[in-house]
């Protein structure tokens, strides 16, 4: 079956080059130069994939993705962006993008990502649409890297402890820290391991579709409901349901989710009939969920129901002792995937990796290693094979004597200590600004001013 890709990029020559490359690889391509024309095209045809640049003349790539979710929820999405905008790229994953690709785009890397996105989309929809799931799902063939640092070993211990229980688990961690991986591990080590592990990305659901995706709908329940559909709760019956980015769930649907969890039954949209379900829920969200509870976007009662056991995944930058193990693993899988035999990493590359901040965590590391393997082809990965920005940013982050010691200037010393204290408290309270302000004995607006003054990542 030929897949359709909507390419959105305002650079005419790049757009043309990309489109011809995809056409040569057997895809049907619609190419447009702005978000407005993308939306126009989406109103006429539903592509399998939307491949969009971040910088567009009208809406930016993230804003376009929000619209795509509404008007074409079944299309997979990939964002293309410069390495300098890596934080934007990370955000795109939270909004439901399958993956981000950094510019300059490497065609082979892009092709792999496009194929993976389409495969993933097919997997998800056939799972969601299958009426009966008679066959038991296969055990995951993925290898789980535990890590050798204290924090990682503790996380692993917690996974093993909570897995066999019936407890709902809430996994907190920045984007790309391996929350879905951890959820799969919990499932695979549980008594439900031979049953379904269903996932639903709450970040990619529009308000309208969220309830139907979770609980299903009956024919005629709303325009477009052409037949009865099972929701993920029913699909996961007997097994585990992983609710990714649960913090993004619309408020109304949160009420229904709480009800489903308490009563262990669901009601399809448009139906009064209760359907009993036995589902273990594992939810995940980024650190900011605590903040969302603050600002009344997330129901506290649901938060507590989901959080019978909390698992916190450390960002990669805080567990550099695990780096070597991940590098080996990602190099090995990239070699396998690309049919290459790259042997390892030059020392200076590892030093750059150690100093870099990794805002996209393991996902970013995996992508950097995969791209470097592809560029390197044989021998050892050197500095020339990794993004320039990564090298400059890691140098900027490397503490030098001047930056690190505040000297004898009292004002400097005071500010240095203030910044460090705020950073520490924010980490301790998982970036809940109200709690941090309370502990620091200042009001929230003072805290916000200081966060911006010291450029603290919060
Ligand atoms: N323990 C692990 N062992 C090996 N690879 C891992 C592990 N954890 C994560 N990864 C890799 O990192 C990638 C991102 O992981 P995952 O999707 O689980 O992160 P996430 O925290 O759920 O991300 P997001 O919040 O953005 O959805 C995975 O595709 C996988 O390649």
TrEMBL record:
PROSITE patterns given in the database record: RESPONSE_REGULATORY, SIGMA54_INTERACT_2, SIGMA54_INTERACT_3, SIGMA54_INTERACT_4
Modified residues (4-aspartylphosphate): 53
Species name: Roseivirga spongicola
Protein name: Two-component system response regulator
GO MF, one annotated term: sequence-specific DNA binding
SUPFAM superfamilies for the chain: CheY-like, Homeodomain-like, P-loop containing nucleoside triphosphate hydrolases
Lineage: Bacteria, Pseudomonadati, Bacteroidota, Cytophagia, Cytophagales
Annotated Sigma-54 factor interaction domain residues: 145-374
Residue stretches of biased makeup (Basic and acidic residues): 128-147
Keyword RNA-binding applies: no
């Amino acid at each position: 079956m030929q897949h359709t890709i909507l390419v959105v990029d305002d650079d005419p020559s790049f757009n043309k080059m990309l489109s011809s490359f995809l056409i040569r690889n057997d895809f049907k391509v619609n190419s447009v130069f702005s978000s407005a024309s993308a939306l126009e095209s989406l109103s006429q045809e539903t592509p399998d994939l939307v491949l969009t640049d971040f910088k567009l003349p009208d809406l930016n790539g993230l804003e376009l993705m929000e619209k795509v979710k509404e008007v074409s929820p079944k299309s997979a999405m990939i964002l293309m962006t410069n390495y300098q905008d890596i934080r934007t790229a990370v955000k795109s994953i939270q909004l439901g993008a399958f993956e981000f690709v950094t510019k300059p785009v490497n065609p082979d890397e892009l092709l792999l990502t496009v194929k993976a996105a389409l495969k993933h989309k097919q997997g998800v929809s056939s799972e969601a649409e299958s009426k009966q799931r008679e066959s038991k799902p296969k055990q995951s063939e993925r290898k789980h890297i535990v890590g050798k640092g204290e924090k990682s070993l503790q996380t692993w211990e917690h996974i093993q402890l909570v897995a066999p229980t019936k407890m709902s688990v809430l996994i907190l961690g920045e984007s790309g820290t391996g929350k879905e991986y951890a959820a799969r591990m919990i499932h695979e080590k549980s008594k439900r391991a031979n049953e379904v592990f269903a996932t639903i990305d709450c970040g990619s659901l529009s308000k309208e579709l969220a309830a139907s995706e979770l609980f299903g709908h009956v024919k005629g329940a709303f325009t477009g409901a052409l037949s009865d559909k099972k929701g993920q709760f029913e699909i996961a019956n007997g097994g585990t349901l992983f609710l990714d980015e649960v913090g993004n769930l619309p408020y109304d649907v949160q009420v229904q989710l709480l009800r489903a969890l308490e009563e262990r039954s669901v009601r399809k949209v448009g139906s009064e009939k209760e359907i009993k379900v036995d589902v273990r829920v594992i939810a995940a969200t980024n650190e900011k969920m605590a903040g969302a509870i603050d600002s009344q976007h997330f129901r506290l009662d649901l938060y507590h129901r989901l959080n019978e056991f909390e698992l916190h995944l450390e960002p990669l930058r805080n567990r550099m002792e695990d780096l070597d193990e991940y590098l080996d693993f990602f190099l090995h899988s990239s070699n396998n995937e690309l049919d290459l035999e790259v042997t390892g990493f030059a020392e200076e590359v590892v030093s750059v990796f150690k100093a870099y901040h990794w805002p996209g965590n393991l996902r970013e590391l995996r992508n950097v290693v995969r791209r470097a393997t592809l560029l390197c082809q044989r021998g050892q990965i050197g500095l020339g094979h990794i993004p320039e920005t990564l090298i400059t940013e890691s140098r900027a982050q490397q503490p030098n004597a001047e930056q690190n010691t505040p000297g004898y200037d009292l004002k400097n010393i005071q500010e240095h200590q203030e910044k460090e204290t705020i950073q520490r408290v924010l980490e301790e309270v998982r970036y809940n600004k109200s709690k941090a302000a309370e502990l620091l004995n200042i009001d929230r607006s003072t805290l916000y001013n200081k966060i911006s003054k010291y450029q603290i990542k919060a």
